[in-house]
Amino acid sequence: MAYMQVEIQCDDSTSELLIAALLDLSFDSFQETEGALLAFIEKGHYDEEALRTLLTNYKNEDGSPIHFLAEPLEEKNWNEEWEKNFDPVLIGEKVFIRATFHQPRPDIPFEIVIDPKMSFGTGHHATTSLMIRQMLTLKIENRNILDAGTGTGILAILAKKLGANKIVATDIDEWCITNSQENFELNKIEDIALLKGTIQELQLKSQFDIVLANINKNVLLDEIPTYATLLSKDGILVLSGFYETDADDIKGRAKNFNLKNINIDGLNSWACLIFEKTAQ
Q1: Collapsed DSSP state (helix, strand, coil) of residue 161
Q2: Is residue 99 part of a domain?
Q3: Which residues pair with 236 in a beta bridge?
Q4: How many structural domains does the chain have?
Q5: In sequence order, which residues have a C-beta less than 8 Å from that of residue 240 and are 6 or more positions away?
Q6: What is the pLDDT of residues 175-213, one digit of tens each?
Q7: Residue 220 domain boundaries
Q8: Are residues 146 and 250 located together in one domain of the fold?
Q9: Are 180 and 151 in contact (CB under 8 A)?
Q10: Which of 96, 173, 174, 180 has the fewest Cβ atoms within 10 angstroms?
Q11: How sure is the predictor about 119, in pLDDT bands with cuts at 50, 70 and 90?
Q12: What angle (nearest 5°) sits at the alpha carbon of residue 97, between those of residues 210 and 11?
């Protein structure tokens, strides 16, 4: 099968936004690199004019335009290529994230198997690692958990392995819903409620003890009021997907909705903020 590779010059936060939009143009796999996003598409589905039009709607955080370079790839066994380039991840000596073709690690308390169709949501990105690090510090057993923007389902899977009671996982992308379900099955998990739509569209009625959201800054700023509404008294909100330089904006927005910042973590310039819901 012939593929095209498109190298899109963009910053990390813009890359996350572009992935969702590129899925609608039939791009089916991605790799985030330093200063660029590599997007792959079957040659027969590639529409350069549609791509060019799409990218005019986006800019980098510094206001600069998005540039791209497209080139055909030689035909390869892409599953084999993934296996060469997808390494297992160990976080905090407690969580081992691997693909089906890696050897298990029964000596690690929590093992998560992820089908590596894309390079995000596998534990390799700093924000995923930060979310997992913070989850390991929380009391999750018997708690009700919302995973907003579940991606590959990795955080929902960990929540289940940590003993969560009820888990609801949401995403706006059909691919993410499909891939999450596949990963739930790989990890022999059957009772996570998986819903497609924005957190506002879904109009959830349940209250949650912990809300997890690893999404880009602009989405978080928009959805923080809804997270606050969905949190139970003294509930915990864990947010990542933004740079350390953006933390004050997130904290300022959260403060307006009775969310008190109780912890901050960072890795490779990315940030993770933890909030507690306080009385009005």
Answers
A1: helix
A2: no
A3: 210, 276
A4: 2
A5: 127, 128, 130, 131, 213, 214, 270, 271, 272, 273
A6: 789 889 999 999 999 999 999 999 999 999 999 999 999
A7: 140-277
A8: yes
A9: yes
A10: 174
A11: very low
A12: 75
Structure tokens at 276: 């507690």
**Predicted structure pTM score:** 0.75
Question: Six-digit token pair at 10?
Answer: 């963009």
DSSP codes of every residue in 55-69: HTT-B-TTSPBPEEE
- The token pair at 30 is 């991605």
Structural domain contains residue 235: yes
Same domain as 148, residue 230: yes
Structure tokens given for 156: 């929902």
Q: Which of these three, 48, 73, 98, is where a domain ends?
A: 73
Cβ neighbours of residue 110 under 8 Å, at least 6 residues apart? 94, 95, 96, 158, 161, 162
**Residue 247 banded pLDDT, cuts 50, 70, 90:** very high
